[in-house]
Amino acid sequence: MDPALRSMxxxxxxxxxxxxxxxxxxxxxxxxxxxxxxxxxxxxxxGVTHGFANTIVHLSKDQDASADDLVNAQYNGKEHxxxxxxxxxxxxxxxxxxxxxxxxxxxxxFIRKKQFALITPATKSRLDLGxxxxxxxxxTRLENSGPFGSMxxxxxxxxxxxxxxxxxxSWLREAYEKAN
Length: 180
Description:
Blueprint: H1 3-16, H2 20-28, H3 35-46, H4 50-60, H5 67-74, H6 82-93, E1 100-103, E2 108-111, E3 115-123, E4 126-131, E5 143-144, E6 154-158, H7 166-178
Antiparallel strand pairs: 1-2, 2-3, 3-4, 4-6, 5-6
């Protein structure tokens, strides 16, 4: 866990009046449809600052979901794309033993010391692979990061396992090497 986050959680009782577990329990009884609704509830009803409210809501989500559950949910209705994800993951795992694979609700991050790649089912027929390749020129295939914003510098659209070819593997390796 990030040291800043650890510190924030440790200071939570003093700064907010409740521990993280107490806040999680409070939120369990609520049914907010959006992240912002829960944040605003904590701010308005309990006087929690935005930073703490955002952290509490974020850490309260998916607390019981395993990594496999998160990935499986991403590919629900898009099962034909799962082999593409699996091939990317297997390719990344071969790059080194210092990689952390972090599934989230809508994406999976590949991290060395920094995130170097991110994959998400973008549509029912396509995955987007984001790569952190600062200074690398764009090509027809190696596009601008698009929806990834500053998390990645480039995006590659993937539709089938064969899209993970030598060129893509070289970009993954380059991104991995730059993330040390």
